[in-house]
Amino acid sequence: MKFFKSFLIAALAAVSMAALAQEATIRKNLAERLPNLPAIDEVSKTPMPGVFEVRVNQSEIFYTDAEGNYLIQGSMIDTKARVDLTEKRLDKLTAIAFKDLPLKDAFTVVRGNGKRKMAMFTDPNCGYCKRFERDLMKIDNVTVYMFLYPILSADSAEKSRHIWCAKDKAKTYADWMVRDVTPPTATCDAAAVARNFEFGKKARITGTPTLIFANGTRVPGAIGAEQVEKQLAEAKP
After folding, report:
1. What residue numbers bound the domain in which 206 lies?
2. Do 96 and 203 form a contact (C-beta atoms < 8 A)?
3. Enclosing H/E stretch for 40
């Protein structure tokens, strides 16, 4: 038994050393051959034999072979399970804990007792956001943290500033999104809007609306009121 334990420890050490050498080879070859490639954060095995994941910029994924001779950008699909492994991995890398959201940079819309919580990244010129806002009005007993996230145009940024600086942010937002009442000109310190933009970029929020529920579940795109209710019921902080 003692011999077997020693043998196992030695074997595991050898495997670990081989893995480190493999990673070093990939890092060295890619850095030398692709000097414009951002610094590599992590190299790890994938379920596909001989293919390794190369992660850069915190959550940008490439794939390569054991020697770093080829670099692939795209999705890895598990055809048996019918799962997009790349998307699944990105979801994990970009997950946002609700407690980590910069809630001070959002305004709130409270309906009913407001006990249930969710967050929404929204662009004032986003048609899908406007449609979703109408569905959201059907949801009761919820607090929605609205993050103004102007990514569509310069006008989006201007409208976001006017909404943020309004005396009643929630009403001004709803008036525009639901009733097409243009936000009146208003001025104030609107640095929160710029911070939202930087936060969203870092978190890879690439479209609006993007919804985040209390359990960290991220839903990109508009969904129906029934689906919102389902997510709220399943979300446990």
Report:
1. 98-234
2. yes
3. strand 40-45
Q: Are residues 164 and 135 in the same domain?
A: yes
Distance CA 115, CA 232 (A): 10
Tokens of 230: 């389902």
pLDDT digits (tens, 9 = 90+) for 133-183: 999 999 999 999 999 999 999 999 999 999 999 999 999 999 999 999 999
Task: Determine the Cα angle at 230 with ends 228 and 79, to 5°.
Answer: 100
CA distance 162 to 183: 6
Q: What is the CATH number of the domain that holds 19?
A: 3.10.450.70
pLDDT in tens, 73-87: 999 999 999 999 998
**pTM of the predicted model over 0.85:** no
Q: How many CA atoms within 13 Å lie on the side-chain side of 233?
A: 7
